[in-house]
Amino acid sequence: MKVSVILGHQNPGSFNHAIASTTLNTLQSLGHEAHYHDLYAEKFDPITRHDEWNNDNLLPEQVKIHSAEIKASDGMIFIHPNWWGTPPAILKGWIDRIFRSGFAYNFTPSGPVQYFTDKTVQVFTTSNTPREVELGVYTDPLENFWKVVVFGLCGCQSFERRNFEPVIMSTYDDRAAWLREVEETVRRRFAL
To answer: DSSP secondary structure string, 159-175?
Structure first.
């Protein structure tokens, strides 16, 4: 399988980076081809220019590469922290530039056409908010964002998200167990 792994965290020593490393090692052990992008390390430009909006010929080379990899992928794995109930701006900008109309979906008079129906999607997120507060007070906006807003429109039938929380209060043993869960999840979701 070809799997795109997209990381949106600015700190190389973060738990998000540990999730990415575990994910990549697991995909490699399964014999998969991974296209990995650490958006901060690559200095991905999240700003969509007006002239590229409806003209793929004007897309920057970096956007063309990412788009081609997503199009060729069998699956996608996203890793990021919860910032104000959304992905960090760099990842949101990546979605704006890559999952554009005509590529990930299209609008027609009879409704949307979905182009990602055959892709497996896994999202790993982290937060410092306890789960009961996230659900009871905030109603888990990240779940809605990824599952309904993004991949609901793009047509993904195989979607899962796992949030690890609260990271700030976690112990070494907690994080080690979470990384084992990441490995198990990737093995289960991306088995041949």
So the answer is: EEEEEE--GGG--HHHH
Q: Which pTM value belongs to this model?
A: 0.95
Give the amino acid at 87: P
Phi and psi for 81 in degrees, rounded to 5?
-85, 160
Helix (H, G, I), strand (E, B) or coil at 108: strand
Q: Which two tokens stand for residue 40?
A: 């901060």
**What is the tens place of the pLDDT at every residue in 100-111?**
999 999 999 998
Tokens of 134: 């996230």
| Under 8 Å between Cβ of 91 and 6 | yes
Phi then psi dihedrals of residue 42, to 5 deg = -80, -10
pLDDT digits (tens, 9 = 90+) for 90-132: 999 999 999 999 999 999 999 899 999 999 999 999 998 877 7
Q: Which CATH architecture has domain 9-189?
A: 3-Layer(aba) Sandwich (3.40)
CA end-to-end span of the chain, whole Å? 8
The 3-class SS string of 16-37 reads: HHHHHHHHHHHHHHCCCEEEEE
The domain ranges of the chain are 9-189
Report how far apart, in Å, the C-alpha atoms of 63 and of each of 113, 146, 155, 191 are: 22, 21, 21, 29
Distance of CA 127 to CAs 11, 12, 39, 86, 131, Å?
A: 15, 17, 19, 11, 9
